[in-house]
Design goal:
Among the domains are: about 170 residues, MutS, DNA mismatch repair protein, domain I (3-Layer(aba) Sandwich), CATH 3.40.1170.60; about 90 residues, 2-Layer Sandwich (Dna Ligase, domain 1); about 60 residues. About 30% of the residues lie in helices and about 25% in strands. A hairpin with a 5-residue loop joins strand 16 and strand 17. The two termini are about 65 Å apart. The model has no long low-confidence stretch (mean pLDDT about 85).
C-alpha cells in the first residue's frame, strides 16, 4: 500500500476564510478567556502587518486597528475536517481523519482510476484549491510516515520501504509526532535536549531504556512509523445526510449578502453528493435569526448534483422568500438523497455550447416562476379531444403511454368553430366518437381530415351520421 497524507496547516483559519466574501482583508482568529485574549491564527494580510499567533489582542490592535476578528471554534474546525474526509472518500475507499489537521488516504489502489501519482496529486491539489483549503501533500508506504513527511516537506514522495527508512532516519525528533505517556512533557523536545536529534539516533538506543523513560507508546509509534507493526486506523464512513451551517458573524437583512455563503454551502453539498454517487431532490435552506428561523424549501422533479445548478435553483427560491428578521447564520439540510442517474447524451452531441439541457431549464423555470407555473402534459384516457390531456407535475405521472388513436392535429382549438368552405375535400374518415354520457357532456361526432380550398389540412367533425354543418376543431401542420 501507499498512503497519501494531506496536511492542513491552517484548517481553523481556512474554515473562516472560505465563508467570508473578502478573504484578502486582514483577519485573525482569537481564543482564550475574556481578560486574556490571544491570537490563535492570522492570515497573510495580518501577518504582513506584524501580527502572529500567540500575540495579545491588545498588542494586535495597537499594530492594526481595523483587523477583522473571528472566534476560534474547534467544532467548526472538526466539521471542515469531516467535510474533507467526505471529499477524499471519492478518491479512495480507505480514508482516516484520526489525526488533527490531516486527512490520510490509501492511494495505490486509485492509480488505476486517476493515473500515476503525479497526475493523482495534481488532481487532489486542484480540488483542494477549489474548496479553499491550504495544504501540503506527501506519499509514503505507511500512513504515519506520510503524516510526518507532509508536515516537513510539501510534495515529498517515497514509494519503497528502504527509501522510507532512509528518509525517516534524518527526520528531527521534534518533528516526528512522538507520543509521550510519561507525563513529563513533549517527548521530541525532551529527546532533543538529551542530545538525540534524529529518528535514526533514537532507533539506535536500547528499547528497554526508551520504554522505561518514555513508555510503550513511543516504541509502538516507531514500529508503526517504519511499517514494522500493523497500524489500525479509524476509517471514515460518509454520513447518511448532509447538514452544514455557516455562522455569519453579523446581521444580514438582504438577499444579496447571503449569496456568498449560499454558494459555499451548495458547493459543499455537491461535493458530498459526488462522494455518495447520488443526487438530491429536496433540501432546506434555513435562515437562522436570533429567536427563530425561516425555512426555504427547494424541491426538484429529478435528482441533481451539479454545483452551479444547485446554487442557481436555491438562489431563485431565496430571492422569492421574505426575510422577516436579520439573519445571523445559514444552514443547509438535505435528508432525501436518491440515486443520481445522469441524462443520456449522444456521443456526437450537436447541441450548442450555451444551450441548457431540458431538465435544468425546467428546474430553473420552476424556481423562477413557481411550481404551479410549469407543468407537463399527460394523456388522460378520455377520447374527447378537449379532455384527452391533463396537467402533470412530475415525470412519474407521465409514465403511462397515450392510447393509440388516428392522427391528431398539432394545433387543437380551444373551442370548435364553424368551418365554411364550399370546396372542402375529405382526405380520410370518418372516425366515430361517442363518449361523455356519464358526466352530462355527451359527444356524438364523426371526425374527418379535410382539405380546404386553400390547401390547408384541417380536422373537422359533423354530428354523427350527418355531413354539411362542419365544425373546425384543429389544424394539421
Amino acid at each position: 500500500m501507499l498512503w497519501a497524507c494531506i496536511h492542513l496547516p491552517q484548517l481553523a483559519l481556512d474554515a473562516v476564510l472560505r465563508r467570508i466574501p473578502d478573504p484578502e482583508r486582514p483577519l485573525a482568529l482569537v481564543s482564550g478567556p475574556a481578560h486574556l485574549r490571544r491570537l490563535h491564527a492570522v492570515n497573510d494580510a495580518a501577518a504582513q502587518a506584524g501580527l502572529k499567533p500567540g500575540m495579545r489582542l491588545s498588542a494586535a490592535h495597537a499594530l492594526l486597528s481595523d483587523i477583522a476578528l473571528a472566534e476560534h471554534d474547534p467544532a467548526d474546525e472538526a466539521r471542515c475536517q469531516r467535510l474533507l474526509a467526505a471529499w477524499a472518500y471519492r478518491h479512495s475507499s480507505l480514508v482516516s481523519v484520526q489525526w488533527p489537521g490531516a486527512v490520510v488516504l490509501e492511494a495505490r489502489a486509485s492509480f488505476r482510476l486517476f493515473g500515476p501519482w503525479p497526475r493523482f496529486e495534481a488532481r487532489l491539489r486542484g480540488e483542494l484549491d477549489g474548496l479553499g483549503f491550504r495544504h501540503a501533500i506527501a506519499l509514503a508506504p505507511t500512513p504515519r510516515a506520510a503524516l510526518v513527511f507532509a508536515g516537513l516537506r510539501d510534495g515529498f514522495a517515497v514509494t519503497s520501504a528502504a527509501a522510507m527508512h532512509e528518509a525517516l532516519a534524518r527526520v528531527p525528533v521534534r518533528r516526528a509526532a512522538l507520543p509521550d505517556d510519561s507525563g513529563e512533557g513533549d517527548a521530541g523536545e525532551r529527546l532533543h535536549r538529551m542530545g538525540v536529534r534524529t529518528l535514526g539516533a533514537l532507533r539506535a538506543l536500547p528499547r528497554d531504556g526508551l520504554r522505561r523513560r518514555f513508555g510503550a507508546a513511543l516504541l509502538d509509534h516507531l514500529d508503526r512509523l517504519h511499517g514494522e507493526a500493523d497500524d489500525p486506523l479509524d476509517w471514515h464512513a460518509p454520513p447518511d445526510r448532509f447538514d452544514a451551517r455557516i455562522e455569519l458573524g453579523f446581521e444580514v437583512e438582504s438577499h444579496q449578502a447571503l449569496l456568498f455563503p449560499l454558494r459555499r454551502l451548495t458547493a459543499d453539498l455537491a461535493t458530498y453528493l459526488s462522494v455518495r454517487d447520488g443526487g438530491v431532490q429536496r433540501f432546506v435552506l434555513r435562515l437562522e435569526h436570533e429567536q427563530s428561523h425561516t425555512d426555504v424549501v427547494v424541491g426538484l422533479l429529478a435528482p441533481e448534483r451539479a454545483p452551479a445548478m444547485l446554487f442557481e435553483l436555491t438562489r431563485n427560491r431565496l430571492e422569492q422568500a421574505a426575510i422577516p428578521a436579520p439573519v445571523v447564520a445559514v444552514r443547509l439540510l438535505a435528508r432525501e438523497l436518491p440515486p443520481f442517474v445522469p441524462a443520456a447524451r449522444d456521443l456526437f452531441d450537436a447541441r450548442p455550447a450555451q444551450a441548457v439541457p431540458w431538465p435544468q431549464l425546467r428546474e430553473r423555470l420552476r424556481a423562477r416562476l413557481g411550481d404551479e407555473s410549469v407543468w407537463r402534459v399527460a394523456p388522460s384516457g378520455d377520447p374527447r379531444p378537449e379532455r384527452a390531456w391533463r396537467r402533470a407535475g412530475d415525470d412519474a405521472s407521465c409514465a403511462q403511454p397515450a392510447p393509440r388513436r388516428p392522427p391528431r392535429p398539432a394545433w387543437l382549438l380551444e373551442k370548435p368553430v364553424p368551418l365554411r368552405d364550399p370546396r372542402l375535400r375529405i382526405v380520410s374518415g370518418p372516425e366515430r366518437l361517442e363518449s361523455g354520457w356519464w358526466d352530462g357532456d355527451d359527444a356524438r361526432r364523426d371526425y374527418y381530415v379535410v382539405e380546404t380550398s386553400q390547401g390547408q389540412r384541417a380536422w373537422a367533425f359533423a354530428p354523427a351520421g350527418e355531413q354539411g354543418s362542419w365544425m373546425l376543431h384543429g389544424w394539421f401542420a
